[in-house]
């Protein structure tokens, strides 16, 4: 094979190899930059959700760096439950459960539920869902104030028998044309409260070692 023919064969292959290498480097760099941005956005979003279910000014620790994990089955969740711990000068204030229920009309609904040390609800927010727009999505605070009906509630307010939607004989409103979604949420919040009423279990949340910061990833 003469040198000219060899050159004609090698040069295109070499150029293709260089282009491929450059492409890999560029894609890797873009992925690295976007992954960092996405992670930061997720952390910011999570912190906002956590802060919304804790009484303002009631804690002074870093929530994202103070959490423990629980078996989801114990709380009726179809995923492991992450519990963030709000403390004031080291003293327990509120446990924030990132839990879920598989009983939504369109599948899993992920919730953020704050429980104070007196076992009352400090707040509830919907973190993720696939419910029908215009019906089931009324659980979102930007769509209605329904989720605020959990504020200050406990297993004594209302009584345990009242932890149902009104259609089932309980105290909580359902949505017009949609009962399954609010029924699932009420049940999930009740499960968190039932678990929390066991003093030893609830206290163990604040006694467990802290783990590294993470983002909302229950499933």
TrEMBL record:
Coiled-coil segments: none
Question: Can the keyword Cell inner membrane be found in this entry's annotation?
Answer: yes
Under Enzyme Commission nomenclature, its number is 7.-.-.-
Its keywords, alphabetically, are: Cell inner membrane, Cell membrane, Electron transport, Flavoprotein, FMN, Membrane, Phosphoprotein, Translocase, Transmembrane, Transmembrane helix, Transport
Q: Which cofactor does it need?
A: FMN
Where is each FMN-binding domain found?
A: 104-196
Q: Which InterPro entries match?
A: FMN-bd, Ion_transpt_RnfG/RsxG
Top-level taxon of origin: Bacteria
One function term, GO molecular function aspect = FMN binding
GO cellular-component term (any): plasma membrane
> Where in the cell does this protein reside?
Cell inner membrane
Segments passing through the bilayer: none
Where are the FMN phosphoryl threonine modifications? 179
Membrane topology, from the record: Single-pass membrane protein
Q: What are its GO biological-process terms?
A: electron transport chain
Record PANTHER family: ION-TRANSLOCATING OXIDOREDUCTASE COMPLEX SUBUNIT G
Subunit info here reads: The complex is composed of six subunits: RnfA, RnfB, RnfC, RnfD, RnfE and RnfG.
What functional role does this protein have?
Part of a membrane-bound complex that couples electron transfer with translocation of ions across the membrane.
- Name the protein family: Belongs to the RnfG family.
The identity of this protein, by name, is Ion-translocating oxidoreductase complex subunit G
- Recorded source organism is uncultured Thiotrichaceae bacterium
Tell me the name of the encoding gene.
rnfG
């Amino acid at each position: 094979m003469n040198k000219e023919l060899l050159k004609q064969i090698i040069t295109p292959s070499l150029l293709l190899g260089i282009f491929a290498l450059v492409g890999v480097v560029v894609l890797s760099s873009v992925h690295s930059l976007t992954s960092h941005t996405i992670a930061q956005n997720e952390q910011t979003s999570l912190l906002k959700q956590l802060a919304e279910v804790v009484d303002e000014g009631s804690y002074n620790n870093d929530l994202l760096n103070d959490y423990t994990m629980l078996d989801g089955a114990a709380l009726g969740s179809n995923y492991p439950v992450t519990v963030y711990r709000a403390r004031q000068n080291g003293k327990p204030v509120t446990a924030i459960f990132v839990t879920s229920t598989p009983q939504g009309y369109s599948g899993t609904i992920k919730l953020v539920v704050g429980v104070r040390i007196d076992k009352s609800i400090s707040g509830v927010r919907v973190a993720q869902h696939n419910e029908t727009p215009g019906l089931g999505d009324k659980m979102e605070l930007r769509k209605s104030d329904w989720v605020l009906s959990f504020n200050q509630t406990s297993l004594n307010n209302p009584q345990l028998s009242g932890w149902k939607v009104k259609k089932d004989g309980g105290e909580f409103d359902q949505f017009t044309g949609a009962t399954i979604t609010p029924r699932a949420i009420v049940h999930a919040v009740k499960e968190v409260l039932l678990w929390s009423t066991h003093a030893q279990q609830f206290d163990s949340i604040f006694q467990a070692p802290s783990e590294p910061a993470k983002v909302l990833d229950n499933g």
